[in-house]
Amino acid sequence: MKVSFIGLGVMGMGMALNLAKGEQKNEFEFLACDANLEALEQFKEKGINTTTDITDTVDSDYIYLCLPNLDIVKEVVLGKSGLLTHLNPGQTIIDFSTISYLGATEIAETCKANGVEFLDCPISGQQAKSMEGTLSIMCGGNEEVFNKIKPMLDKMGTQVLYMGENGCGQLTKVINNCALNICVASFSELMPVGVKLGLDPEKLGDVLITATGSSFASKTLVPKVLEGDFEHGFSLDKAYKDMESINEVLVKHEIPLPTLSGTMQSYQLALQGGQRDYYKHAMIRFYEDLLGVQVRKEGFE
């Protein structure tokens, strides 16, 4: 059996390194693929086969993808010289990229028409978890195929869930992301109000981290707000695209979600306010500017 992995970026690197351990245990033959030669060095050092050409992967039983966006996934899979032009019925593509629900279902339908299985398996977790092999992986597609590849997925994640038919993996991921986005918007709007009216930022932050209004978002991001740390690899602009993705589904099915719609407006204000390239909690700076305050710990400059 041959397994290939295309896309060795921030998340794909650790995932591919963990998956490649299967070759070291003689479970399968492994090939790492990326256009960036530097990304291949760690694999070459371990004696793992590498390539910069995706067509070298087309004889694989299973081809894993971890790519930046929907356009690139479509080009790699459905493009004029993409994978699907070379694959035979019975081969499988597993996509870890975060793309839209509608995009995933469209790609899956095209693959299925050619006898190729396509599973959308977006991931959740930071770069450290990808290196540790402790990601959450949410999968949509053929359940029988999922059961076959689960031992491989278990090398990359500790929470590996089958969510349903094609698109269900992406739908799960975007719902999770949007729930996080809503939580970030809530404290970003409310903390500046508290500080404007005389509350101490650190004490208010302690309450939002520990009391009934706490969330994963407040626990991880309120400390960064207080320290003035808004740098992160995943920008507010990309977070907004998650909401655009689910909004396509809501429009198609005529489903009103006022809380999500309000959150999108908060993100739009932050994007227009110059916070596009910072992490999502940078939206608090829009409300700080609006109210003329800063939500920072004592001594911050």
UniProtKB/TrEMBL annotation:
Biological processes annotated in GO: organic acid catabolic process
Domain 6-phosphogluconate dehydrogenase NADP-binding stretches: 2-164
Superkingdom, taxonomy of origin: Bacteria
Keywords: NAD, Oxidoreductase
PANTHER family associated with the record: 3-HYDROXYISOBUTYRATE DEHYDROGENASE-LIKE 1, MITOCHONDRIAL-RELATED
Recorded family membership: Belongs to the HIBADH-related family.
InterPro entries: 3-OH-isobutyrate_DH-rel_CS (IPR002204), 6-PGluconate_DH-like_C_sf (IPR008927), 6PGD_dom2 (IPR013328), 6PGDH_NADP-bd (IPR006115), HIBADH-like_NADP-bd (IPR029154), HIBADH-related (IPR015815), NAD(P)-bd_dom_sf (IPR036291)
Gene Ontology molecular function: NAD binding; NADP binding; oxidoreductase activity
3-hydroxyisobutyrate dehydrogenase-like NAD-binding domain residues: 167-287
Protein source organism: Lentibacillus halodurans
Protein name as catalogued: 3-hydroxyisobutyrate dehydrogenase
One Pfam entry name: NAD_binding_2
Active site: 173
PROSITE patterns, alphabetized: 3_HYDROXYISOBUT_DH
